[in-house]
């Protein structure tokens, strides 16, 4: 079995005359948690909908679990799980009733290695909804509803799970619980997870690897640490010496400061070291895009921008 | 084969669960409203005799209303499809293996089950309200069965087709206006022979008239055919018109439904939700 769960090369998407994705290329290994991070309108949702097989692409090569999602069959569908943010469906159903029902579609796709579907009671326990087993779904809170959405997403024990903006609209407590759930899934089940978010902290917390998407292009790709080195700016050191102010941007601030003290000792005053963070860089990136959407993206009036802006 | 069996089983269980939901709690009141209103109308008509036919209007109308409720099943399907697209139920089905097939089987089970429930709610008390129905013979029930089956296939497939073409629950609301107009001219409550000829022809192009006629032919004695057009039950014509609608629905509905399902995506659902919120807010 191949170790690559997701292989995207030169992916392009065009609505009318607006290009939303300009040749996006990336891969995800099996078992990896990959975050697509970017500001609103960057093309995250379009990308993930193409991967989910819900949207046709304009050009490029896409393989998800070895299959082109545009020409996928039900067997492939059984290996993929999808969690969206805007689902309000099946409000009159009860939690266990719905999970039992949706699970039954997967029974025909059970294999030696992967037993499908997940037992509904175990699944409900795994997402922490045991107390709400027999509740009507439209009586669940926002956080509980999202847990149910995850449970539905994984009821067929998917090899690959898509989470599109999974924590949008959740309060901090529900958000943290949701993060724990996702981490647990990735760790215990070995599920490959692809999630989109515009929250850097969420990406850092959940993902093994982060792709930053901006204006339809991937501008950075790596672990949180690698990204900090790739795109973060330099640290800034300020001090005064002999009544004069100095500002310097050394490539490594700790050895620089050490050297400074060795040379001038206690005569160095008002020392300040500002460590540049990934957050600063990412925020400035987002700010650029949001304050000058047309300049930064060239697709101000695109469908995706309107859709994402409406959220 | 095993896949087909699974699908039928899953679709059936889905349909029955949603059928139970739509007939429990507060939903039940809404479900009972129209059948009870119809029964009230029949009750009021039970003593007015129609011309020299020897039948009361109530007796003539009860079978016709059964036909009407079969045809109104199309509106149920339209409502289901538009509501389920707006809240993401259909997208959920799309994200599930064979989910779309299971979804449609389930919807047809729910809509057919609701229709059967309406017929029982009308017919059982109706038998005590009006006199002169011919329900003792096997032939009556055979006719009722084939008219019912043909009617369900025709009206629900047409409903599925329209439901796929109409994009919002609001749009579904507008469709019910011309449908109620059709009911008015289809001789459900009063024999169609009383209407101007051009309205008679209009009515005969649609299933309402033929379903009502078919139900009258099943439940009324043969002598009642004297008040019909051509003084006959016209079974051949009934089969032809209902069959033509069924064929149209069965051919067109899967194509339209596939197109509808293909266009479903998370952002499409989000967009509809935002529009719905704008209307409210």
UniProtKB/TrEMBL annotation, chain B:
Subcellular location: Cell membrane; Membrane
Annotated family: Belongs to the ABC-2 integral membrane protein family.
Residue ranges of domain ABC transmembrane type-2 in the record: 26-260
Transmembrane segments: 28-45, 65-83, 104-129, 141-165, 172-192, 236-257
Record keyword Transit peptide present: no
Organism: Streptomyces albipurpureus
Membrane topology classification: Multi-pass membrane protein
Pfam family, one: ABC2_membrane
Name assigned to this protein: Transport permease protein
């Amino acid at each position: 079995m191949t170790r690559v769960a997701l292989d995207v090369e030169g992916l392009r998407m065009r609505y009318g005359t607006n290009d939303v994705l300009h040749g996006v290329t990336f891969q995800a290994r099996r078992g990896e948690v990959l975050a697509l991070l970017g500001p609103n309108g960057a093309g995250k949702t379009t990308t993930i909908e193409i991967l989910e097989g819900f949207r046709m692409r304009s050009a490029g090569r896409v393989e998800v679990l070895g299959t082109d999602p545009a020409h996928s069959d039900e067997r492939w569908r059984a290996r993929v799980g999808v969690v969206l943010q805007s689902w309000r469906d099946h409000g009159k159903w009860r939690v266990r009733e719905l999970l039992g029902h949706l699970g039954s579609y997967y029974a025909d796709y059970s294999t030696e290695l992967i037993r499908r579907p997940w037992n509904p009671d175990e699944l409900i326990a795994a997402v922490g909804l045991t107390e709400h087993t027999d509740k009507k779904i439209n009586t669940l809170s926002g956080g509980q509803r999202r847990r149910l959405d995850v449970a539905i997403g994984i009821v067929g024990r998917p090899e690959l799970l898509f989470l599109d903006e999974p924590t949008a609209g959740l309060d901090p407590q529900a958000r943290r619980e949701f993060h724990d759930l996702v981490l647990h899934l990735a760790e215990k089940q070995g599920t490959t997870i692809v999630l989109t978010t515009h929250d850097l902290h969420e990406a850092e917390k959940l993902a093994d690897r982060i792709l930053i998407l901006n204006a339809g292009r991937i501008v950075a790709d790596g672990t949180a640490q690698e990204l900090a080195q790739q795109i973060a700016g330099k640290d800034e050191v300020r001090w005064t010496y002999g009544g004069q102010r100095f500002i310097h941007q050394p490539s490594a601030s700790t050895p620089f400061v050490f050297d400074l003290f060795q040379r001038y000792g206690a005569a160095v005053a008002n020392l300040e070291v500002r460590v540049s963070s990934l957050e600063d860089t990412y925020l400035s990136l987002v700010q650029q895009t949001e304050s000058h959407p047309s300049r930064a993206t060239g697709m101000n009036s695109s469908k995706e921008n309107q859709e994402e802006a409406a959220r | 084969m095993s896949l087909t069996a699974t699908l039928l089983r899953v679709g059936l269980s889905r349909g029955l669960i949603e059928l139970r939901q739509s007939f429990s709690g507060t939903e039940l009141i809404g479900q009972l409203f129209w059948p009870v209103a119809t029964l009230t109308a029949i009750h009021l008509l039970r003593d007015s005799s129609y011309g020299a036919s020897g039948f009361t209007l109530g007796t003539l109308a009860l079978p016709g209303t059964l036909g009407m409720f079969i045809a109104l099943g199309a509106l149920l399907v339209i409502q289901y499809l538009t509501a389920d697209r707006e809240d993401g139920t259909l997208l959920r089905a799309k994200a599930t293996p064979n989910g779309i097939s299971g979804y449609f089987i389930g919807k047809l089970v729910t809509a057919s089950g609701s229709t059967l429930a309406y017929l029982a709610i009308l017919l059982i008390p109706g038998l005590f309200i009006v006199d002169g129905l011919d329900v003792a013979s096997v032939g009556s029930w055979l006719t009722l069965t084939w008219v019912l089956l043909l009617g369900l296939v025709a009206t629900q497939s047409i409903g599925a087709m329209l439901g796929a073409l109409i994009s919002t629950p609001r749009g579904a609301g507008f469709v019910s206006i011309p449908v109620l107009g059709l009911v008015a001219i289809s001789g459900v409550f009063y024999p169609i022979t009383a209407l101007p000829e051009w309205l008679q022809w209009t009515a005969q192009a649609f299933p309402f008239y033929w379903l009502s006629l078919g139900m009258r032919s099943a439940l009324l004695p043969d002598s009642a055919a004297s008040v019909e057009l051509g003084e006959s039950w016209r079974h051949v014509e009934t089969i032809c018109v209902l069959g033509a609608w069924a064929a149209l629905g069965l051919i067109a509905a899967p194509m339209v439904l596939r197109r509808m399902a293909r266009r479903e995506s998370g952002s499409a659902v989000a967009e509809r939700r935002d529009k719905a919120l704008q209307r409210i807010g």
